[in-house]
Q: What sequence folds into this?
C-alpha cells in the first residue's frame, strides 16, 4: 500500500508538476511580480501585430518628433514613426530571438556538458579547455566577430547567441552530471548493462534537468541584455525592424527634447529583463537550487 | 603549493594560446582578406601585391601565425590597417584611458559593495535588506547602455550638472579627464557594485549559518566581535574569486559604456576596428582583453590560495 503511494507520487503528470512549480514561484512577491511582467510581455508579443494602431515603418516627415498625444500615445520618432507601435512590436523581436537562442543554448550546452561529465578523461579535459578559452574572450568581442563575419539576419543572430551563451551551460551541466554519476542508481544501471544513451536519457537527464533549466532561464536574461546591447551598438537586427536597442540608440541623439522616443523602449526593455530575472530567480528557488553565489559568466 | 601555482599559470598560458588560435582562425575566415577590404576597388595588380607584402599576407597562414605570435609576445602587434600606425602606439593611450575608467569604478565599487553586502546579510529579510536588495536587482539587471543613457538624460541634459559625452583628445592628462569620467564611472560602478553586493550577501549568509558561528553565538561571543572575527574573514575569501569573475565579465560592459559616452578607450576601439574591418587591431584587442581576463582570474585564484590555509592542504591532498 505504502509502496503504491510512493509510486503514484512519482508518476504525477508533467502538467501537475509544472503548475505546482508555478504556484510555488507565485507565492513569493518577487516571483509573482516577475511572472506577471513576463506573462504580460509574452501576451503582448503574440497580440501586438493585431493591436498596433499604426504601421511600424510608415515614415511621415510632417509628423517628426511629436510629443505624446491621443493619436500617438508615446509620441513619434525622428522619422515620424509611431513610438507606441514600435515599442510593443519591439518586445516581439526581442522575445523571439532570445527565446529560440536560449533553446539552442540549452540543447547544445546541456548535451555537451552531460557528455563531458559522463565520459571524463582526456576528451573532457580537451573540451573544457576549449570552453575555458571561449569563456575568456569577452562576450561582446566574440559576438561582434561572429556578426561581422556572418551578417546580422535573424538566422545568424539566433544560432550565434545560442552558441555563445551555451558555453556557460556546458559547465553547469557537467558539474551536475559529476554529482549524479557516482550515485548508486547509475552504477546499477551500468551493472544491468544499459547503454550509454539509455543511461543519459533515463538516469542522468531527469536528475540534472532542473539545474540546467535554471541556468538556461538565467542565460535568457543575459542573452536579452547581450542582444539588445548588440542592437544598440548597431550590430544587431537591421532597421527598420522595431527593436528596443536600435530604438534607444536612434533616439539618443535627440533626447534633449524628444525624450519620449527614448523612454518608451527603455521601459519596455528594462521591464522585460527584470521580469525574466525575477522569474528565473523564483524558478531556481522553487526547484531548490541556490545560484546566488555564481558569477555571471 | 609551488607546483600548484605553476600549474595555474601554465593553464592560463594554454588558455591564451587557444584564444590566439581562435581569433586568428576567426579573422582568417572573414570574407575577403585585409587587403581587398582596405583597397576596395583598387584591389588588383601591383597595389594588391604591395599591400600583401606590407602586411605579410603572401606567406602561408601557419607561418604568419607563428611570426605574429612571436612578435605579440614581445608586445609588437604589427601595423593597423586604417591608420597605418603601429598598433602598439594606437593601443597605449587607449589602454591607459580604459584603465583609469575601470580602476576608478573598481575602487569606488568594491568598498560600497562590501558594506551593502554585509548590511543586507546581517539584516536579512528586514527592511534594510529588502530596500537595498530591490535597488541592487534593478541596478544589476538593467543593461549598461540604458543606465548610461538615463544618467546622461537626467544628470547631463535635465539637470546640466556634468558633461554628457566625453569630448577630449585621446592623450589628455588625468586631471583634465576627471570631470568627464564621473558619469561613465558611475554607470560602470553601479552594475558592478550591485553584482558584488549580492555575492557578498549570500557568502556572509552562508557563513552565518555554519556550525562554528552557531558555536560562537552559544559561547556568548559579543555579536559584533563575532561578525568581525569569525564571519567576515571566512565570508570574504570565497567572494574574491567571484568578484574577479565579475570584473572580468564587465569588460563587455565597459565597451558599451565607452561607446555611449564617446570615451576614447579600448572599448570604443573594439567597435571602431570591427566596423573598419581592421583585422590586425581586432586580433591584438582580442588577445589583450583575453589576457586581462585570464590574469584577473589567475590573480584571484592565487590570492584565495595564499589567504586560505585550509585550501592549501586540501589541494595537495587531492
A:
Amino acid at each position: 500500500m505504502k509502496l503504491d503511494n510512493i509510486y503514484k507520487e512519482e508518476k504525477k503528470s508533467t502538467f501537475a508538476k509544472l503548475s505546482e512549480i508555478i504556484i510555488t514561484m507565485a507565492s513569493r512577491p518577487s516571483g509573482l511580480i516577475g511572472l506577471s511582467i513576463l506573462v504580460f510581455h509574452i501576451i503582448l508579443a503574440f497580440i501586438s501585430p493585431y493591436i498596433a494602431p499604426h504601421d511600424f515603418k510608415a515614415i511621415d516627415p510632417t509628423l517628426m518628433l511629436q510629443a505624446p498625444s491621443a493619436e500617438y500615445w508615446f509620441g513619434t520618432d525622428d522619422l515620424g514613426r509611431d513610438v507606441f507601435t514600435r515599442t510593443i512590436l519591439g518586445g516581439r523581436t526581442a522575445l523571439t530571438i532570445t527565446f529560440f537562442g536560449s533553446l539552442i543554448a540549452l540543447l547544445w550546452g546541456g548535451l555537451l556538458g552531460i557528455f563531458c561529465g559522463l565520459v571524463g578523461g582526456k576528451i573532457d579535459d580537451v573540451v573544457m579547455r576549449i570552453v575555458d578559452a571561449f569563456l575568456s574572450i569577452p562576450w561582446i568581442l566574440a559576438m561582434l566577430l561572429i556578426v561581422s563575419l556572418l551578417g546580422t539576419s535573424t538566422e545568424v543572430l539566433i544560432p550565434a547567441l545560442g552558441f555563445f551563451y551555451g558555453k556557460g551551460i556546458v559547465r553547469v551541466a557537467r558539474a551536475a552530471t559529476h554529482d549524479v554519476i557516482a550515485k548508486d542508481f547509475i552504477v546499477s544501471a551500468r551493472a544491468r548493462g544499459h547503454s550509454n544513451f539509455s543511461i543519459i536519457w533515463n538516469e542522468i537527464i531527469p536528475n540534472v534537468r532542473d539545474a540546467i533549466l535554471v541556468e538556461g532561464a538565467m542565460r535568457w536574461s543575459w542573452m536579452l541584455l547581450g542582444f539588445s546591447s548588440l542592437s544598440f551598438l548597431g550590430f544587431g537586427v537591421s532597421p527598420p525592424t522595431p527593436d528596443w536597442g536600435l530604438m534607444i540608440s536612434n533616439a539618443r541623439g535627440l533626447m534633449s527634447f524628444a525624450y519620449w522616443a527614448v523612454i518608451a523602449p527603455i521601459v519596455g526593455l528594462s521591464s522585460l529583463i527584470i521580469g525574466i530575472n525575477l522569474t528565473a530567480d523564483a524558478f531556481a528557488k522553487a526547484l531548490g537550487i541556490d545560484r546566488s553565489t555564481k558569477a555571471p559568466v | 603549493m609551488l607546483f600548484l601555482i605553476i600549474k595555474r599559470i601554465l593553464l592560463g598560458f594554454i588558455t591564451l594560446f587557444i584564444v590566439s588560435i581562435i581569433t586568428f582562425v576567426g579573422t582568417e575566415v572573414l570574407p575577403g582578406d585585409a587587403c581587398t577590404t582596405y583597397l576596395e576597388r583598387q584591389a588588383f595588380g601591383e597595389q594588391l601585391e604591395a599591400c600583401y607584402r606590407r602586411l605579410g599576407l603572401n606567406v602561408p597562414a601557419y607561418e604568419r601565425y607563428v611570426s605574429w605570435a612571436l612578435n605579440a609576445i614581445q608586445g609588437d602587434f604589427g601595423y593597423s590597417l586604417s591608420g597605418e600606425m603601429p598598433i602598439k602606439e594606437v593601443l597605449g593611450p587607449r589602454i591607459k584611458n580604459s584603465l583609469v575608467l575601470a580602476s576608478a569604478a573598481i575602487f569606488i565599487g568594491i568598498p560600497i559593495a562590501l558594506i551593502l553586502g554585509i548590511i543586507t546579510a546581517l539584516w536579512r529579510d528586514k527592511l534594510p535588506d529588502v530596500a537595498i536588495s530591490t535597488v541592487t536587482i534593478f541596478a544589476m539587471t538593467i543593461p549598461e547602455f540604458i543606465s548610461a543613457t538615463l544618467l546622461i538624460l537626467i544628470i547631463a541634459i535635465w539637470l546640466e550638472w556634468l558633461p554628457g559625452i566625453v569630448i577630449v583628445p585621446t592623450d589628455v592628462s588625468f586631471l583634465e579627464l576627471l570631470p568627464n569620467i564621473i558619469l561613465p564611472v558611475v554607470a560602470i560602478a553601479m552594475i558592478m557594485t550591485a553584482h558584488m553586493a549580492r555575492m557578498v550577501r549570500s557568502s556572509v549568509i552562508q557563513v552565518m549559518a555554519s556550525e562554528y558561528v552557531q558555536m560562537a553565538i552559544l559561547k556568548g561571543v559579543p555579536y559584533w566581535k563575532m561578525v568581525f572575527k569569525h564571519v567576515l574573514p571566512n565570508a570574504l575569501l570565497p567572494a574574491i574569486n567571484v568578484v574577479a569573475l565579475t570584473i572580468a565579465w564587465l569588460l563587455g560592459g565597459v565597451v558599451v559604456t565607452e561607446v555611449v559616452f564617446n570615451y576614447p578607450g579600448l572599448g570604443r576601439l573594439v567597435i571602431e576596428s570591427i566596423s573598419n574591418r581592421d583585422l590586425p587591431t581586432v586580433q591584438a584587442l582580442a588577445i589583450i582583453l583575453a589576457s586581462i581576463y585570464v590574469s584577473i582570474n589567475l590573480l584571484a585564484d592565487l590570492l584565495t590560495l595564499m589567504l586560505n590555509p585550509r585550501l592549501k592542504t586540501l589541494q595537495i591532498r587531492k
